[in-house]
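Dear support,

Our group has been running a series of protein-ligand predictions, and this particular one with S-adenosylmethionine is the one our PI (initials K.S.) wants archived with full inputs and outputs. We had some confusion internally about which version of the output was final, so please treat the block below as the authoritative record. The input we submitted was:
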Amino acid sequence: MSADPDLFTRMYERSPDPWHFRSRWYERRKRALTLAALPEERYGSAFEPGCSIGLLTRDLADRCSRLLAMDSAPGAVAQARRELSGVGHVRVVRGRVPESWPEGSFDLVVLSEVLYYFGDTDLQGVLDRTLASSRRGATVIAVHWRHAADEHVRTGDDVHRILDEAPWLARTCRHVEDDFVLETFAVEQPGAARGEGP
Ligand SMILES: C[S@@+](CC[C@H](N)C(=O)[O-])C[C@H]1O[C@@H](n2cnc3c(N)ncnc32)[C@H](O)[C@@H]1O
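Confirmed final output from the archive:
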């Protein structure tokens, strides 16, 4: 079973920044490494599910012509919208993946600290939709805390083992530290080589 969306809604009701994304050096450094690991300088159209309060979104915005960010928690979406206000090529929407996966196709899909919340069916759904919405040569970047946590269905290491086994994902970068693993992949056999993004 995937983590209950209400869990995240309640987390943002208790604290505006439950993971201390704004203040922790660990988080700020991880965002910088995530940006540095992206192989392309610029992306046309990108999708970032689980965008939280929009800090990684704000950094990604500088590298993308169009960026769609989504989160299931209303408190996260409200803050991300404030963070990105005035940035016309970024749209922040409320929705839960995989079921709210957007129409369109992407050059970049960002899966940062989100896949370990999914049970088997939802995780497969997210991977299927990533493949189906990726343009030829698209980048998928995945970054995850490696250890067990109460609200995580699996560890980040398990998530990345699954990604590494996907035959349509060709790994282009792997960076492992004690606490997190970061990988980039090129999408082979893209599901949607044509089409406009969001
Ligand atoms: C740990 S935060 C990750 C934030 C950001 N991606 C980063 O790496 O800094 C996880 C976020 O994913 C959101 N989330 C969890 N499950 C989700 C789902 N199924 N669909 C959309 N958002 C989800 C939560 O509300 C939360 O804001």
